C-alpha cells in the first residue's frame, strides 16, 4: 500500500494531463479504490474532486 502523499501525487499527475479523457478519470478512480481505505478522508476528498472534474468534462 502506498502512502497517502504518494497516492495524492499520482492522482494529481493523472488529472493534470491536458489530454485527459474518461480513461484517465477511470485510472484515477482505480488508484483511489486500490490504494486508500474506504474510510480515508483523503479518498473521500479526492473522490469528490474527481466527480466534479467528470461533470465539468461532460459539460464542455
Automatic annotation (TrEMBL):
Compositionally biased tracts (Basic and acidic residues): 16-26, 34-44
Superkingdom, taxonomy of origin: Bacteria
Region spans: Disordered: 16-44
Protein name, entry field: Uncharacterized protein
Organism: Roseiconus nitratireducens
Lineage start: Bacteria, Pseudomonadati, Planctomycetota, Planctomycetia, Pirellulales
